[in-house]
Amino acid sequence: MQDIIKAIEEASIKIKELIETGDTAKSEQENSTGDTQLKLDIASDVIIEDIFKTIPRIKAIVSEEQEEIVNLNKDGEYLIAYDPLDGSSLVDVNLSVGSIYGIYKDNFDAKSIIASVYVVFGPRVEMVVAIDDVKMYRLKKGKFEFIQTIVLNEKGNLNAPGSTQNCWAPFHKELIDDIFNDGYRLRYSGGMVPDLHQILLKGGGLFSYPGTTDRPKGKLRQLFEVFPFAYTYEKANGQAVDGFKRALEVETTHIHDTTPCFFGSNTEINRVLEVYKKNG
Ligand code: AHM
Ligand code: MG
To answer: Is the minimum distance from the CB of 205 to ligand 1 under 6 angstroms?
Structure first.
């Protein structure tokens, strides 16, 4: 696994440079979820793929920006699903973005995830690695230095409610309103990496991206976004659910499947489960 972490560090240093100097214009292409790709999405994807291709222990990779799985080494052990530059449209307005990596064994599905890594590109570059626990590293003078282990509190005070609000189910709106009425503060940048990172580092809260009338299965992709963060939240003593069950029990039928999702500390997620059970 260490060789994969090193590869992610190397890719991240290059992606940081790309974010600082690259062209933020749209490309002519769409990804398989129908989003227009930015030149930055494609360039980050190439950086990561080129580095992963040099690692014999990687069996196959699949990127949010590509249609198909890329097979690398027949005798390799690991499968990696990644979102090279999540929230890339935020680069234009100079907000934080991130890369997300899910490391799987045998199959690209929730029960096969064995580790997860994300990298936040903000005022600083930080990498969070979840294997047995959740460790944060910060890029300093070209090297990632260990900073702290991340553990969520039982209850937090941040609320990050995603998706199109006029497409929310009435009970979902009531849940979010009730949470605000209990004193939670709004924190939502539109980049799931910095938004989820903030909740992890500030002790807890709730990030939600529900199913809506415009997108009944939500927007966030299972393999590239939801499962990696679900793994991280669980290892940090929090939870991740689809409203009814653990996100890591959601079935995958296609590599680009999406799912409604909720990440947070235990108090907030138990509240979501209770409300969804009553109304779902
Ligand atoms: P992307 O992979 O196309 O960048 O989209 C994912 C991003 C997430 O980072 C974020 O949580 C979500 O889209 C925001 O969506 P919305 O603007 O609908 O709230
Ligand atoms: Mg993404």
So the answer is: no
Q: How far is the CA of 271 from the centre of ligand 2 (A)?
A: 26
- The rounded Å distance from CA 64 to ligand 2 centre is 7
Amino acid at 100: I
pLDDT digits (tens, 9 = 90+) for 216-273: 999 999 999 999 999 999 999 999 999 999 999 999 999 999 999 999 999 999 999 9
> DSSP state, 221?
B
Q: Please indicate whether residue 45, judged by its CB atom, sits closer than 6 Å to ligand 1.
A: no
pLDDT for 81-119, tens place per residue? 999 999 999 999 999 999 999 999 999 999 999 999 999
Instruction: State in Å: Cα 190 to ligand 1 middle.
Output: 6
What is this structure's pTM? 0.95
CB neighbour list of residue 94: distance below 8 Å, 6 or more residues apart = none
Copy the structure tokens of residue 164. 């199109």
For residues 221, 274, 201, 125, the Cα torsion angle rounded to the nearest 10 degrees is 10
Both tokens of 73, joined, read 């080494």
